[in-house]
Each structure stands twice: as C-alpha cells, then as structure tokens.
C-alpha cells in the first residue's frame, strides 16, 4: 500500500482542537490498511467533527445533521466491498441523530462509527451536548446539562452493540490501536473519542482528560457484558479507555443469506424476465 | 355493467372475500374496477369494497349499486340509498332489514352444516355468481389455486350450496380477459420500480403506502432488492440517499405525514444531485387526518417542500398503468438529471384494483448515460460545471475516482465552499437542469370533444372518473373536453394554453378543498379557472359527483 495514499489538507478547525490528532491518527490508520482510498467511504453529518471526511483523500459523503448513520448503513448494504467509516460529533450522533444511533446499533451493519466527543456543541458556539457533564447546581456554567447526561457507551451495550470502545485524542497510539480494531470488527463498531474543545469547553480540557483517562489493563475481559456496563458507568476521577465490550454476532448481511452472497447488491443484474413473470402472475 | 358492494365490520373477512370474488369475476370474463373503503381499525366499524364489473375496461367507480352483500345491518343502513330500485340485498336470514329488495338466505346455517362457520363467504360468493348467471367452473379453479389445500373441499361445498339457493336475475356477456392482469395501484408501482432495476427500498409503515413496503418484503430477496424498515421517515429517505450515492437505484415511499419528515433530505438530494424516487401516497391531512382515506392535497406541498431552491420533478399517477410506466420513467429521469422525482399517488389509486393489459417491461423508459472520457482518479469532479448542468456521475468503489458529495454548498470536487462566485455557478448549474427537463415533459392527456367549449382540468387519480363524466356529458351535448395532468411539475403548458384560448369555461376538478391545481396553473400559466368541483371528505370524487357538480353549476343539463 502506498503510504501516502490518504493525505489530509487544511481544515476549518480551531488551533489546538482535538480533531487534529484524530484526523492525523485516522489518516495514519488508513495508510496502514490494505484498502485503497477508492474503496473507503468516509461519511459525516454536520458539525466540526463531521468535516473530517473533507480533509482526507477518500470517497466522501457529507450528509445532513444527525443523519450520517442511515446513509452509511445503506452504502454498506448495497456495496459490501466498501469500507464505511462515519466521523461525527456527539451532538450529531447522540442529539439530532439519537434515534438513528439506537436503531443502527440493532441493525449491526458492518460499519465503523467514530464519535468525536468534546462534550459540547462547538460549531454553534458553546451549547451543552447530550454528553456534557451534569450541572453543579451551585455553579451552573454555560455548557453543563440540566438534564441527565447521556451515556453513549452504556446505551450502546444495552442496545446490543457488538463493539463499544472509548479513546482519547491525546493518546494517539492507543487511539490508532482502537481504530484498527474497530474497522476490523465485523459489525457495527462504536468508538467514543474524547477530545478537548479548546474554544468552548472550559471544564473537559486536554489536561482534564489527560489526568483521568486510564487504559483498561490486560486482565479486562471485553466479552463480559455486565462488567462492561459497569465499566461504561465509570466517568469521574478515572475514565477507562479501550475496548469496553466486544462480541461477535451475526451482522446485517449474515442474517440475510437469501439476499447477500459474495457479490455486492449493486453488481447483481436486473432480471427483466423475472419481473415480467411476476407481472404475469397477476393474470 | 354492474356494481356490487360487500360490507361488514373490520375482521369479518370482507377483504378476503372480495379478493377471491374479483379473481373469479375476471376469470369469468369481466373487466373490473374495485375500490376499498376501510376504517383505521383492526376490528369492528364498517368496511366495504365496491366491485364494478363489465365487458369493457373500467377506470373509475360509480355510486349506484345493483347489489349489496351485507354481513351486518350497518352495511344496509349505510348504502341502501345507493341501491337501485331493482337491486338486491343479499344477507343472512338472521338480519333484520325491512326492504322489498332483500334476499334472505340461510348462509350461516349452510356454513355450519358444511362443518366450518368461516365458509359463509364462499356460500355468499356462490349465491352472487348465480344471481348474475355465471358458471361455477371459474370459481372452482380460483378456489383450487388460491386456498390452502385442506380448505378447498369445504369451500367448494359451500360455493355449490350458495349457488343452489337462488335463481339467476341478471345476465352478462363475458369477454376475453385472459390477456388482462388484475392488480392494485401500489402493486403496479412496485412492479414499475422492479422493472427499472430498484436495488434498495426503505420506508416506515404509513397508510396508505404500507402495501408498497409489504410488496417489496415479499419480492425483495428474489429480485435482489434490499428492503429496510426504517426507524422513522427521516432515516428512510437518508438511507435511500446513501444507497443511491453508492450506485443502487433507490426509492422510499410514504404518505404526507412521513413526507413532512423527509423534507430536509429532499433538499439534500437537490443540492448533492443524488438521484432519488420518492412516492407520496396521499391521504387527507393535515397531521394524522384520515389515515385510510383519500385526497389530493399534497400537490402544493411537494412542489415546494424543503428550504432553498433546487430542481425536482413531480409526476401525478393517473391510473394503474401510470403507476407502472411512470414509476419506471421516474427512475430514468432521476438518474438522468440527478435529482429527486416525486410520484404523487393516493389511497384511491393505491388500494383500488382493476383489470388492465399485461404491463410490459420492454415498454418502459430507461436511461443509460453516454460513456464519457473524463479522466479518472484525482481529476474527477463530481460537480463538474458543464454546459448542460449535468455532471458525470461515478459510483464510489467502481473506479479509482473519489466521489465526494456534500449537503453544504460545494466546489466542483464536492468540497465545502463559501465562495460567492462558485455559489452562483452551482445554483445556475442545478437550476439549468430544469430547462432541459421542460423539453421532455409529457403534456396532459386530452380527452373528449376537440372543439369543446367547456374544459375540465384534473390530475392524478381522478382522471378515470373525469373521462367517464366527459363521455356521459358529450352523449347529451357535444361540448366537453378534459386535460388530465400526469407530469405536473414543472407544469407542461402547451396543451393547456391551446385549449384555454379556445374554450368558454375552465373547470378544475380536484380532490382537495382549495383547488391546488388551479392555483398552480394560475401561477405558472396565468390562466384562471372559472369554476371548480372540489371534494375533500376523504371519499373519492365519483363520476356521479362530477356530473352533479356540473349540473349544479349550470342549473341543469
């Protein structure tokens, strides 16, 4: 593989934004893979994180806010040869796209979902996101949740996700490892990537995450669902990062053997004689 | 020509009985047009089907009935005013109906004696066939091919018993119908989509579009179509857009409420230039409205839905043949112009069944782009600025070219831009496609007397009734013509302007309260209608409604 097949370009992000290291890591991961750019589709919704596909030389689909997942799964359903990777933010994935998040976990289509989670709305300048920390009622800041915080990992595990991981943009080596594992996973893979928003999130800063993130140790068993749910609820002085849960279950395609074989759906010929025979069955 | 109604509560088996009876009548040499009127409930209430049959092709229902099969007294009460003076009411002898036209038969008792109370509808079919003097052979054939093997014998006994209970009252000259098919509007849309190579259908169940989803569930695997029930209509359309981007001919179907949720994504297909077919099977709105009933009130909505400006096409389906051929054509147009094409149907067309000549997959409009010699790889520009406004379309993964699409305003490569000059170029490029499309619009069908003084205007599913009304009116005074719009946006105007200059009055006939077609014509062609016949009670405009509308307008004809 040409090691510079995937290149990145000038971005619309703030200096110091966590997205840079995610972009750099992802570009590196893609370059290490055997798959050429023409076989990769990077899908995004709307938001700063969703612009990731604009900056990598691969196929790109920049859809609507919150609607990256429905488009991504359909791309994979009709052409299984493609590697489909979604990059979007926490607002796009869990707020506007919450319904699609839940139901595409259930579909288990073989795609990868990288959520750039900075616990805030960046592009609209500082409103709380579903994953913003809960407000301290004695000290309410701009970007805290008066509602309960959304725990994407816990919800993903509970909804039947087959690959659930957390990573941190500040630990690129670890992030790369998790990205590889997620892309290689057969089925829907979620990686919630913590990243600082230097402009608007004054609480969950680079230093905040750096002090708290702790890679899961080798003794951790990602096949234990209940333990994974407990782990997913740890988010305080220590924030575990790594593959919290992984299980191999039949994918969307594997469950539909009558429709899918080795040939992608888009390559299958239209058999007009079958359609004509079906029409004649109405005689 | 005869017209009979079968009525009962939801769950009484009227739908199953009607479907069998329709097949038997077709096999017996009848053309058919059947409407289904049902409530938004699973049990109880009042549902009916109205089967019109004759020895010429039929394109609409009529109000006057020759016979009623009443499972309950409600059916009689609801419909006795439609029954002609020499018509009949067929019912079980337990029903209390005070009417000279009633034929009371021991239907329940006969079914019980045969050993299965559920075969009551087969007893009734036997009696109905005898009343119209049909032979039993076609019915026996249909029972054998349509019923579960272990139920054939008992139903045949029931059929014969019913046949023996009455004497013939009417007679019928059968015609050759073995070259005809019998299907519903939604089935014809499904077949049209399959014929054009559909590979992906996503939808959220919503009456009256749901039977389209059901159709694809049944036939999807065999026909290589992925069918996905989405979590909502927003997902349904975004899935279809993703599938289309990846090279699969894709469609989504819904009714007005679901279409409302799809609106933002409709604009996305416009700016991202992604081919897509969207079916809106209309029902009366707003909001939940009348879930199982009919209306043509989404016209204004679908031609303007979504923020911003982008090219789109809207085709109103007029009949079951349109459902097949225009659906197929919509795929070709969506692909050619890389834009959304919206098909407007409605509950009347979706659920009604009719006989029509065998649809032919060789007669559909297709589109295969000329192979172009653009450089592949890095030089591919998804939104290349061309003279036509149409940019060469590549499928991701099928070439080394990188295919980038964007809901933001973008440059030729699909990269986000904020440039004023690029914005102008892209808007002009997209809108220019409409100019090309205008050259291949299909003019409305003219029907009636060429030198007419009164011109009726209609679109979509009211066409059959309007044509029959024109025939009846012209039998009296040769004065009427009609323009029946299929392609409706952009509005084809040649025929319209020609006839508008000739006639004395123009009457728009529409299944909505505000005259949306008339408004569109005023806006686009600066032509005003003089009178209108509008209906919005959820029940389809009949030939009779049009005739009485014209009579009331003129004070008699």
Overview of this protein structure:
The complex is a heterodimer of chains A (283) and B (557). With 283 residues, chain A is an alpha/beta fold. Chain A has helices spanning 19-32, 68-78, 90-96, 98-107, 152-159, 172-184, 206-212, 225-232, 272-280; strands at residues 40-44, 59-62, 83-89, 112-117, 163-168, 189-194, 213-215, 239-246. Chain A has one domain (19-280): Thiamin diphosphate (ThDP)-binding fold, Pyr/PP domains (Rossmann fold). Chain A is built from 9 helices and 8 strands. Chain A has an 8-stranded mixed β-sheet, with helices on both faces. In chain A, strand 5 (163-168), helix 6 (172-184) and strand 6 form a beta-alpha-beta unit. In chain A, helix 1 crosses helix 6 (172-184) and helix 3 crosses helix 4. Chain B is an alpha/beta fold. Chain B folds into 4 domains: 2-165, Pyruvate-ferredoxin Oxidoreductase, domain 3; 182-363, 3-Layer(aba) Sandwich (Rossmann fold), CATH 3.40.50.970; 377-438, no CATH class; 445-554, Rossmann fold (3-Layer(aba) Sandwich). In chain B, helix 1 packs across helix 5 (137-146) and helix 7 (185-195) crosses helix 8 (210-219). The longest helix of chain B is centred in the last third of the chain and has 19 residues, at 420-438. Chain B is globular, with a radius of gyration of 26 Å. The relative contact order of chain B is 0.09. The model of chain B has no long low-confidence stretch (mean pLDDT 96). At the A-B interface, strand 2, helix 2, helix 4 and helix 9 of A face strand 7, helix 7, helix 9, helix 10 and strand 15 of B. Strand 2 of chain A pairs parallel with strand 15 (404-406) of chain B, so a sheet runs across the interface.
């Amino acid at each position: 593989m040409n090691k510079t097949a995937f290149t990145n370009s000038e971005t619309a992000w703030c200096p110091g934004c966590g997205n840079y290291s995610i972009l750099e890591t992802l570009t590196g991961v893609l370059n290490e893979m055997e798959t050429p750019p023409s076989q990769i589709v990077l899908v995004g919704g709307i938001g700063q994180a969703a612009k990731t596909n604009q900056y990598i030389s691969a196929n790109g689909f920049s859809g609507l806010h919150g609607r990256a997942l429905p488009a991504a799964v359909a791309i994979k359903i009709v052409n299984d040869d493609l590697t489909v990777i979604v990059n979007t933010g926490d607002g796009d994935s869990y707020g506007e796209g919450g319904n699609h998040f839940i139901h595409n976990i259930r579909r288990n289509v073989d795609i990868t979902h990288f959520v750039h989670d900075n616990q805030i709305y960046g592009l609209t300048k500082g409103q709380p996101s579903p994953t913003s920390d809960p407000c301290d009622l004695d000290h309410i800041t701009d970007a805290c949740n008066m509602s309960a915080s959304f725990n994407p990992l816990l919800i993903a595990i509970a909804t039947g996700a087959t690959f659930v991981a957390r990573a941190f943009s500040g630990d690129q080596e670890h992030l790369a490892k998790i990205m590889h594992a997620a892309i290689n996973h057969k089925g829907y893979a979620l990686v919630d990537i913590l990243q600082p928003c230097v402009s608007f999130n004054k609480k969950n800063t680079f230093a905040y995450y750096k002090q708290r993130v702790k890679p899961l140790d080798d003794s951790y068993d990602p096949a234990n669902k209940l333990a994974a749910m407990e782990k997913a609820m740890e988010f305080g002085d220590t924030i575990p990062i790594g593959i919290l849960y992984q299980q191999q279950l039949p994918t969307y395609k594997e469950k539909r053997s009558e429709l899918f074989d080795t040939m992608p759906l888009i390559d299958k010929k239209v058999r007009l004689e079958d359609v004509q025979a079906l029409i004649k069955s109405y005689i | 020509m005869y017209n009979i109604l079968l009525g009962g509560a939801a769950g009484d088996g009227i739908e199953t009985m009607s479907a069998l009876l329709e097949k038997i009548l077709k096999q017996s040499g009848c053309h058919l047009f059947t409407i289904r009127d049902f409530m938004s409930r699973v049990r109880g209430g009042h549902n009916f089907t109205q089967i019109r049959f004759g020895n010429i092709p039929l394109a609409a229902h009529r109000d006057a009935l020759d016979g009623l099969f009443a499972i309950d007294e409600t059916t009689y009460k609801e419909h006795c005013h439609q029954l002609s003076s020499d018509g009949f009411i067929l019912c079980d002898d337990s029903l209390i109906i005070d009417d000279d036209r009633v034929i009371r038969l021991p239907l329940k008792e006969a079914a019980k004696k045969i050993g299965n109370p559920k075969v009551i509808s087969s007893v009734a079919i036997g009696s109905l066939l005898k009343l119209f003097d049909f032979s039993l052979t076609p019915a026996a054939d249909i029972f054998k091919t349509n019923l579960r093997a272990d139920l054939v014998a008992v139903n045949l006994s029931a059929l014969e018993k019913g046949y023996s209970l009455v004497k013939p009252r009417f007679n019928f000259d059968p015609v050759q119908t073995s070259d005809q098919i019998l299907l519903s509007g939604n089935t014809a849309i499904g077949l049209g989509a399959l014929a054009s190579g559909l590979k992906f259908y996503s939808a959220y169940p919503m009456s009256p579009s749901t039977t389209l989803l059901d159709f694809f569930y049944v036939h999807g695997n065999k026909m290589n179509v992925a069918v996905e029930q989405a979590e909502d209509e927003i997902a349904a359309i975004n899935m279809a857009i993703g599938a289309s981007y990846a090279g699969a001919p894709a469609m989504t179907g819904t009714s007005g409420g679901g279409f409302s949720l799809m609106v933002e994504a409709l604009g996305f297909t416009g700016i991202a230039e992604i081919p897509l077919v969207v079916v809106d099977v209309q029902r009366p709105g707003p909001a939940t409205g009348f879930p199982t009933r009919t209306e043509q009130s989404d016209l204004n909505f679908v031609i303007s839905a979504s923020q911003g400006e982008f090219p789109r096409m809207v085709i109103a389906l007029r009949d079951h043949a349109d459902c097949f051929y225009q659906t197929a054509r919509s795929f070709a147009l969506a692909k050619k112009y890389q834009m959304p094409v919206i098909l407007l149907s409605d509950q009347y067309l979706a659920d009604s069944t009719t006989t029509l000549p065998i649809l032919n997959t060789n007669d559909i409009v297709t589109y295969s782009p000329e192979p172009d010699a653009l450089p592949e790889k890095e030089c591919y520009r998804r939104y290349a600025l061309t003279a036509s406004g149409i940019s060469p379309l590549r499928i991701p993964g099928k070439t080394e070219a990188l295919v980038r699409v964007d809901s933001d305003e973008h440059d030729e490569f699909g990269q986000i831009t904020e440039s004023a000059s690029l914005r102008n170029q892209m808007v002009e490029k997209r809108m220019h496609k409409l100019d090309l499309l205008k050259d291949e619009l299909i003019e409305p069908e003219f029907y009636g007397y060429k030198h007419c003084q009164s011109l009726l205007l209609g679109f979509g599913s009211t066409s059959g009734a309007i044509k029959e009304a024109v025939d009846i009116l012209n039998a009296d005074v040769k004065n009427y013509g009609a323009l029946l719009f299929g392609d409706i946006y952009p509005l084809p105007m040649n025929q319209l302007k020609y006839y508008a200059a000739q006639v004395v009055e123009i009457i728009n006939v529409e299944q909505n309260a505000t005259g949306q077609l008339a408004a569109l014509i005023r806006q686009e062609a600066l032509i005003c209608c003089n009178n209108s016949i509008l209906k919005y009670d959820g029940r389809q405009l009949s030939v009779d409604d049009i005739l009485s509308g014209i009579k009331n307008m003129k004070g008699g004809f």
